[in-house]
Amino acid sequence: MVIITLTCDGFATNVIDLGGLQVTQISTFNKVWSTRDGGLDNKGATIFEPKNIPKGFYMLGSYSQPNNKPLYGWVLVAKDVSSNTTHPTLKQPRPCLCLVTNSTKCYKVVGHVVTTTPDKPSLDKIRCVREDLTDQSEQHSLIWSNNHFFFVYDVRPSNRGTEALGVRVGTFVTQTDETTTNLSISCLKNINTNKTSSMPNLQQIDAIMEFYSPFLVLHPNEEFYHSSANWFFSNGSLLYTKGKSLRLS
Known about the structure:
Largest sheet: 4 strands, antiparallel
Radius of gyration: 25 Å
Distance between the termini: 51 Å
Structural class: mainly beta
Oligomer: single chain
């Protein structure tokens, strides 16, 4: 097997720059907590933490999913690559605060950390995100509920579409109300003006086509060889012209 790795800014690196904030997906987890009651199909839910996080990246929040499906999700981790040393894109949270204030810059939480002990989790394991790199989020699908007194929901950007800048983190939100429009966590936002940085250039496209294009193996006695589209349209029979359909006799 031959593996070709192509790199050009974000393309084929599994890393995307949102504007001084690099993010990458993690789909390998350590289980933190689980219950076998309540939730979808009354099979409970499980909360995970991302593992094998690349060097320099930080966890933004834990991942959760219902137990009625095999493990399938992902969560984003982030790395500060900005040149702004006064107001970096990531900041360590303060104890018991969901909003970290730093002069004129605010930092918002985009995920939760879960522990099974009375001790507070280490603040070094998670980061808050600078406010201009966050956007409004909304609850999406239900992950788990406990007798309608406690709810866990998947979270997605409120503003979605081809022109929207919101980025799903893969985290979840916990709340005591079944529905709410004022979530305690945000999603990410892509403020990178170079939206094509994660797309391949022409040289990389040529390499991809050369590597993945099919090989045609013809029989030695084949009489009709393949031709280019230009040759076919120049030498083929016209079956249709604008406003008039031609039929073969």
